[in-house]
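haha ok so turns out i had the wrong file open the whole time. this is the CORRECT one, sorry everyone. sequence first:
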Amino acid sequence: MRRETGLFGISLFLLVAFPLNAAPARTEPQLSNLRFLRDFAETRGFMLGRPTKALPTPDGKAVLFLRSEARVPKLQLYEFDVATGQTRVLLTPEQVLQGAEERLSPEEKARRERMRVSVGGFTDFQLSQDGSRILLSLSGKLYLVLRATGEAQSLNTSLGTLIDPKFAPNGQSVAYVLDHDVFVFDLRTQTERRVTTGGTDTFRHGLAEFVAQEEMDRFSGYWWSPDSKSIAYEESDHEGVEVWHVADAAKPDVAPYPSYYPRPGKNNVKVRLGVIAVDGGDTVWIQWDRERYPYLTSVVWDRFGPLTLAVQSRDQREVVLLAADPVSGRTTTLLTERDAAWVSVRQDVPHWLAEERGFLWASEKAAGWQLEWRSRSGELRQVLVPAGAGFQSLLEVQANSREVFFTARPDPTQSQLYRVSLDGTAPVALTHALGIHSASFGEGDAIFALTTATLSSMPQSTVQRPNGSRVGELPSLAEAPPFIPRVELTQVGAGAGFYAALVRPQNFDKRRRYPVIVNVYGGPLPPSASGMVTASMARWLMAQWLADQGFIVVSIDGRGSPGRDHGWERAIGKHFGSVPLEDQVAGLQALGQKYRELDLKRVGIYGWSFGGYLSALGVLRRPDVFQAAVAGAPPSDWLDYDTHYTERYLGMPDTDAAAYREGSLLTYAGGLKRPLLLIHGTGDDNVYFRHTLKLADALFRAGKEFELLPLSSMTHMTPDPMVTERLYSRIATFFQSHLGRPTR
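then structure:
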């Protein structure tokens, strides 16, 4: 589960009425600046039109990137010329489709859902190793683009569901997955070859299974060998895994879409890794103890190291890094990570180094993430970034300069770019402004693309040299927001305290007391993720509009949020129903002591996904603190969520039944005393609509009043612009009705 960044959906309002339970007197709602809602929705939070997926070419002479128009969610391919600073269009979807509509298969829609991609057009691209050609997919077909001329050639592949295309390292072939098998297209002969055989919906070849995509950030299921002669591929056996169906009640003529969905304590997908020559032959299966380590968390096969895989135990307390012999299938253990709670998985390591120098690894053994340099056999050589320095993500290692680029957090609200040398020098900060900084690198060492966002600026992408000098800016077509959010970041509470944020109305009057809305996520996140409280203007735009309706909006990062120490993140384990909520209450009370303008007798709470769960939990367990809640897509019963996420934090249902009972919203349904609005997409294939239906049924049987807003046909992501406007209006009026207006 990953935090969602917005509440969107297409809605059918339904009020379920039962005997009233001490609801506060309602106030007639009055909304202002509705134009902002329309602009925010149509520009996707003023993010459309900004460069994305920037990739420098190997020669350092250009940067490729994707960009849409300011209000058209369809990405086009561009090239920025380093020498002239000019940008040109390389290819548009319209040139390729020639008037036809873009069509996506159900499989591609599901893959984009896992990747949280909601725009159309060219959503990704591949650059050949020499930088001369670009590989794109659109509407189920592959296109090869010559950079020099912009000429696009359609590859004559077989018809079917085509997923995850990749250049071979030598640039002479392209691989992809077609109807559950891996294929290779020879660009010289213009012929297609099936590499694997026997793939079916149950036995899939080359595709990452659901939990790998949703919970491990691993979206691919096959990997080219460095010499372009072989492919390592995942075989995922779904036999015995529960099949859940996503049905659209609004379209009864459309058959439900089946999905293998492993739930806690039940059968998982069985995964193994094989290596096969692209010109034919038998598969060599890589050997490891798959009973003890059923999860394949990551695979790396590059020119500097062996075929390397990380595997994880079902209880997620062990991760083993293995080097594999692709000829015999035998493996050698490089290292083992163990943790009494769980070992977090990452996709940025291992990173093999040139000249037989070993590899880089990230470990949490020292009570915080540290970046390590290890020998080829796995022994620790040097700690490059020690625990306590806030290491976040490894970005790049430049072979010639021996310099390592990474992001780290001086505190959890920001992310800065750093450089450290393998020669032993201390890390050097390349960015300094309070904000979120990220970078993307290509095959060469000459340039990189830096994206910076601060509390007073939207994301801006520039081209930089490793010495810190600026080359130019990737041009944006995005519209500017009409205001800079009035946000204050702070730290409150005893001991380690909580990082928190307050957004006050633009017409804030310090003599008044304001009802409070807590915008919450509150759940655990991957190591590289940011919490809710971040120094980024885009994060607070909608919060500012909501504050302008007569509230102060606050967010609090409690235990379980990233960017703190090991114990902070592990405290949430087996205590979903208590620790996250306790921290929101403690942080809220600490804010109330510091800021007189917060009226803690009138507090609402809202969020999406885990934030929706925590919002509902707030009014169910702490009605003395929270007077109203909006719960979007809440996982109400953790027995109905997926294995890898849920078992990591709550254990197995047969041995940790108490943790599941404590964490279930159904346990507390009979205690509802405050207004609750439930929102859920009926087509959600991550947190299924079943969750909200089960909670609604439990509330109904307990005789409780609540409101239910089904989002017809919507998934966990629902980016319809009209609905964005209507939905946030609905949330604002709900809180105005139940919390009232500012008072003297």
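Residues 205 and 217 are 18 Å apart (CA to CA).
again sry for the mixup
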